Amino acid sequence: MSFVIVSLLSIVLTQIYGRTNLDPRVDLLPAETLLVHNRVRAEVGVGPMVWDFKLAAFAQNYANVRSKDCALQHSTDEMYGENIAAGWLKSKESMSGPIAAKLWYGEKKFYNYQTNKCSGMCGHYTQMVANQSHRVGCGHVRCHADTYLWVVCNYAPRPMGDENTRPFVLALALFSVILTPAYGLPKVKPIDDVQPEQTLAVHNEIRAAVGVAPLVWNETVAAYAQNFANKLAKAGKCAYTDMRHSGGPYGENIAAGWVQPEDQMSGPIATKYWLTEKPNYDHATNKCKDVCGHYTQIVANQSFSLGCGSYRCHDNELIWIVCDYYPMPMGDANTRPY
Ligand SMILES: *[C@@H]1O[C@H](CO)[C@@H](O)[C@H](O)[C@H]1NC(C)=O
Ligand SMILES: *[C@@H]1O[C@H](CO)[C@@H](O)[C@H](O)[C@H]1NC(C)=O
Ligand SMILES: *[C@@H]1O[C@H](CO)[C@@H](O)[C@H](O)[C@H]1NC(C)=O
């Protein structure tokens, strides 16, 4: 009998409580889902996997196929390893990408390394720790009026899953890391997300492109921005609809984005994001076609210095960046930024 049975499924059923519609990405939490996998692997000495956008797209595509029924059924394409879990959304801890991964980890006790056999369901666990798989990507969908979450993760390369191929080398497990109950992403100091030097450099490139003198970093302004960020974090202001200005004495740009393996939100990424408004600004008329106020703030020659702060939400997966500018530009119809 094969030990990696990709058709095995975990089902978690709890009572229906329903919950309000969250941002669907909160259901998946890719970075934390990956982290749970990698902690589980580290425990038996298997190297980490990386998040794969192609696999995630494959998984999401199949999740979309299942959007009508959320059936616990595998995709027919057998290119990849595949784990599925589903559960009712009762509270934050009911079902999500990381919760699904923790459920699969719960099968560990049924896997016997000596015999390479399962005494209960353990195929999801052996898939997680299979050293043949190096990449993972997951998708998700909600059913039953948004009260039921269905999660699928795909793995590549697909493990052999035969009687003779163990998922990992036991000897390495001696050097394993002890799995801690806290699965959250490591806390990052806000300044690590801000990246002051790079943020300043990106601003100054954008200014130089239109012949405006460079800004300098201003610690007073940065402390103001971080203080505002801390207040927002404490008040749990995490939804995009919560985005508000501090109403202080400075010009201000705010952006938010998810933790990702690449191009994760940060001070420099936020700045590049604001730069995308550049085509919306018409210097001749000093008007915006669409939104361009973040861009005109970056290039405003009335501002000489900036400082930024940041905070994280949703188990450290959503990053908010706040940049303040001194002096605050006039921003009236007659005053061009440069
Ligand atoms: C994976 O584990 C198998 C079984 O113990 C072992 O033979 C193989 O060398 C390992 N491969 C890697 C890449 O660690
Ligand atoms: C930094 O900002 C403060 C106002 O908050 C201002 O008084 C000071 O001159 C600024 N420093 C620089 C270098 O722009
Ligand atoms: C800023 O730009 C405006 C509009 O072009 C110009 O009139 C002004 O002299 C500039 N100020 C500085 C300090 O460069």
Automatic annotation (TrEMBL):
The keyword Signal applies. Keywords: Pathogenesis-related protein, Plant defense, Signal. Residues 28-161, 194-328 form the SCP domain. Coiled coil: none annotated. InterPro entries: CAP_dom, CAP_sf, CRISP-related, V5_allergen-like. Probably involved in the defense reaction of plants against pathogens. This is SCP domain-containing protein. It comes from Brassica napus.
